[in-house]
Design goal:
binds zinc ion, 198 residues, alpha/beta
Length: 198
């Protein structure tokens, strides 16, 4: 048995590492959890344990789920000939929140970066090119962030896929340097509907 206060401090320290939580809000969150031990903290601990044991990347698209193939890739309804390319799983989840896209995704896991020595193979770009053939993709929608690296990556992918399918990108509404995850659903919807050819 560790020292009780020390155990709680250790929990606060861990929570404070979460994005969006600093030491102060971590302390408040932990206190709240302890007060709601039965109704919230217990179920949360169980849910975390389950996800920690089972979470994995979809071997097809890179989405995070608890099976080798995610629900979106497993669904025949999503095989509509469209793939939406995003940088991060958070962007995929943001698109799904907006509930405006009916196709499948491809998560790159980052952007090309000469500085950080990130090349096409690191981003599953060869895998994307294969999927376009294997899944009879008609349109690839590039939903990459409007950062310099995001746009460099978009151009690289457009070159790789040139002549194989239609290539579009999200339209205005995505602010410069903006990240999909921070956009409201309406903005994402507008940007997807008004997508333009690359
Ligand atoms: Zn998937």
């Amino acid at each position: 048995m560790g020292d009780a206060t020390q155990d709680i401090e250790a929990l606060i320290d861990l929570m404070a590492r979460l994005p969006g939580l600093g030491p102060r809000s971590a302390r408040r969150a932990v206190l709240h959890l302890i007060k709601k031990r039965g109704r919230l903290m217990g179920p949360l601990a169980t849910a975390m344990q389950t996800v920690a044991e089972n979470a994995r990347e979809c071997t097809q698209c890179g989405n995070i789920g608890t099976a080798d193939i995610c629900d979106i890739c497993a669904s025949e309804k999503r095989a509509n000939g469209e793939i939406c390319v995003v940088e991060d799983v958070a962007d995929l989840w943001a698109m799904e929140r907006a509930a405006v896209f009916g196709g499948r995704y491809h998560v790159l896991g980052g952007t090309l970066s000469a500085l950080d020595a990130v090349g096409p193979e690191d981003l599953r770009i060869p895998h994307l090119v294969r999927r376009v053939g294997d899944e009879q993709i008609r349109e690839v929608i590039l939903a990459l962030n409007a950062t310099v690296d995001g746009q460099t990556t978009a151009h690289y992918i457009a070159d790789e896929l040139a002549g194989r399918c239609e290539i579009t990108s999200l339209a205005q509404g995505v602010p410069i340097g903006g990240e999909l995850d921070y956009l409201d659903d309406g903005t994402i919807t507008a940007a997807l509907r008004a997508r333009k050819g690359v």
